[in-house]
Amino acid sequence: MRTSAVEAWTGRIVLIVVMAFTIIPFITLFVTALHEPGTYPKGLSWPETPHWDNFALAFQSADMLKMLGSSALIELGVVPISLVIATLAGFALGHLRVPFARAIFVLFVLGLTLPFEGIIVPIYYQMKGYGLLNTQLAIVLPLIGLFMPFAVMWMRAHFVNMPHELTEAARIDGATTWQLFWRIHVPLSGPAISSLAILLFLWTWNQFLLAIVLVDDPTKRTMAGALGAFQGQWGTDIPLLCAGSILILLPTLLVFLIFQRQFVAALLQGAVKG
């Protein structure tokens, strides 16, 4: 079915408007970060003398090197473990005949409805009881549990659409369940796993609430959580605060730009298979 010229131009105009609403805040943030520290820029105006050293000053003032190390440690604790558990559980629920699969599926669906804000108090007292407050584990362990419903549902949706002919052929050749999973289905699940890894990375990096509630030391939080302490120290210095915000946003933008092909491929794969 061919698209008419009116529909094509309407789509282009909508994309341009959406792109403008998305990009303009980043441009404003960047331009404001180049103004003289301690000033209050008005509107979207390019400074006469751009202060590029604001980024270095924000990096040093916020001790972002330690924040980067803490964020990397938290990412390494959350993303790989969540991927392994979600892939195994998604394969079991989506492709194998396991007892009470429908009931387990309903429980994961209910888990998707739990808001972080509604369970932050029980999580706080639980981490306090374990003696994990003010440590990276106080962020890692809750995030693994909170991300698991979505991660399992994501991988289950992928494995449900995998052709059963592959499984039957492998069973005839004498493949065990583990061989079926590791040698056949995991290699074919690259787009789904990589896109889930991107989402988990972005969500963990941008996690703010758990970081500021469970960890007092800014150097042990995520980068987004550390921004709260940076804002408290430099909240009146708008250019420096904008420079720090850009430095915190930059890794997530780079990760998405680098791996956007895998992310789009997984979405298109799900759309085609229904």
From TrEMBL:
Transmembrane domains' residue ranges: 12-34, 72-93, 105-125, 137-155, 192-215, 238-259
Any Pfam family hit: BPD_transp_1
Assigned keywords, A-Z: Cell membrane, Membrane, Transmembrane, Transmembrane helix, Transport
This protein's record includes keyword Glycosyltransferase: no
Domain of life: Bacteria
Subcellular location: Cell membrane
Record flagged with keyword Manganese: no
Membrane topology: Multi-pass membrane protein
ABC transmembrane type-1 domain segment(s): 68-259
Family according to the record: Belongs to the binding-protein-dependent transport system permease family.
The protein's name in its UniProt record: Raffinose/stachyose/melibiose transport system permease protein
Species: Microbacterium paludicola
